[in-house]
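Propose amino acids for all 146 sites.
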C-alpha cells in the first residue's frame, strides 16, 4: 500500500499486515508494471489537487495486470446537486482548498478507455458534505502498460 500519512500507514500495516511501500506522493514506483490484480484508491482523488490525480492515474494503469481492475472514487457532476452546492458554500472548508476536488466523469472514462480499460460500473457513496462516484474499470487482456 501507498500512504502519505505515516501514522495511518503504520496503523494499517500493524492492524492488517499491509506492506507499506515508499511513497513520493505522485507515483507507484515500487510496484512492477502489470503486477497487480487490483489498484484501488479510496477517498484519495476527491481530496488531492488535479495535477496529482493526473500523475497517479497513469501509474494505476501501468501496475494493473491485463484483466485486472482499477477502482477509485471522484467527485463528478453527478455528485453536485443544487443542495450539495449550498452545503459546500456554507461549509468551513477554506478558500483555496483542493478539497473537494472535482473531476468530470467523461475525463475518467475517456482516460482509462484510452489505456485499454472498459468501465465495469459506477455507484455513488457518501463523502463528508456530499457524495463521490466510485468507478470500476477492467483492463482488457490485450491492453499494454502506458
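Proposal:
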Amino acid at each position: 500500500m501507498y500512504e502519505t500519512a505515516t501514522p495511518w500507514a503504520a496503523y494499517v500495516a500493524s492492524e492488517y499486515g499491509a506492506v507499506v511501500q515508499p511513497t513520493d506522493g505522485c507515483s507507484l514506483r515500487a510496484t512492477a508494471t502489470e503486477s497487480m490484480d487490483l489498484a484501488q484508491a479510496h477517498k484519495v482523488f476527491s481530496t488531492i489537487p488535479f495535477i496529482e490525480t493526473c500523475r497517479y492515474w497513469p501509474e494505476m494503469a501501468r501496475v494493473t495486470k491485463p484483466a485486472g481492475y482499477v477502482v477509485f472514487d471522484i467527485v463528478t457532476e453527478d455528485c453536485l446537486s443544487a443542495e450539495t452546492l449550498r452545503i459546500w458554500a456554507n461549509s468551513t472548508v477554506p478558500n483555496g482548498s483542493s478539497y473537494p476536488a472535482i473531476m468530470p466523469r467523461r475525463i475518467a472514462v475517456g482516460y482509462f478507455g484510452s489505456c485499454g480499460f472498459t468501465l465495469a460500473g459506477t455507484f455513488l457513496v457518501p463523502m463528508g458534505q456530499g457524495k463521490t462516484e466510485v468507478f470500476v474499470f477492467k483492463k482488457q487482456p490485450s491492453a499494454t502498460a502506458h
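The longest helix spans residues 50-63. The longest strand covers residues 64-74.
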